[in-house]
Amino acid sequence: LALTEMSSPSLKIGAYVLIGVGALTMLMGFLGCIGAVNEIRCLLGLYFTCLMVILITQVAAGLVIYFQKEKLKEEVFHVVSKLIENYDPSKEDQRNLEDVWDYVQTQIACCGWTGAKDWESNKILINQSMTAYPCSCSNSSKNLQTESGFCNLDVPVNGTATHADWPVHEQGCMDGVEKWLKDNLGVILGVCTGVAVIELLGMILSISLCKNIHSEDYTKVPKS
């Protein structure tokens, strides 16, 4: 529920597309197995069609991400900004979404979307005069076991502080994600290419099976 309320239209559409592709993949596998075992041409034809639709969807999604990346980046910024502003470890109804964001900040070693300053909009931190900070942003070894919620500053300056006083990572998660994508671009392209090749092989095999079944049916027809 929290994710639905905070998502932008593009992200919602993307989520629905992924759900649809997942359901189609399950249906595709079922049709392929039944069609191959029982040599049913129509099911093999549906299997081929499903594979083709999935392949086209993947190519289209890649093109949309490439050409609309700036718009997607802006929409993600709005979603993350709202998440950070309302971040509250005591609210169980949004705990799952907050755990995901804490995991991102911990794994990528980043803080906020553009930087730690994003967290200065958090309502709880404002009430505490910035004398606490998100634990998942910490670059201190003593907080390695605490990956969620807020941690208190050891020595608050005059009872108030800013993000510059926090022992957190300076890098924003937007830059961290982009760096991760660049560093792993070869692996990502390799995986995408491998999946596309497997799908193409599946399409070729389904066509071959259909032709074999057709040939067998033709030879079984009694000649007059």
UniProtKB/TrEMBL annotation:
GO terms for cellular component: plasma membrane. The keyword Transmembrane helix applies. Pfam families: Tetraspanin. Keywords: Membrane, Transmembrane, Transmembrane helix. It comes from Centropus bengalensis (lesser coucal). This is Tetraspanin. The lineage of its organism: Eukaryota, Metazoa, Chordata, Craniata, Vertebrata. InterPro entries: Tetraspanin/Peripherin, Tetraspanin_animals, Tetraspanin_CS, Tetraspanin_EC2_sf. Gene3D superfamilies: Tetraspanin (1.10.1450.10). It is a multi-pass membrane protein. The keyword Disulfide bond does not apply. It is found in: Membrane. It comes from the Eukaryota. The chain crosses the membrane at residues 13-37, 44-67, 187-210. Belongs to the tetraspanin (TM4SF) family.
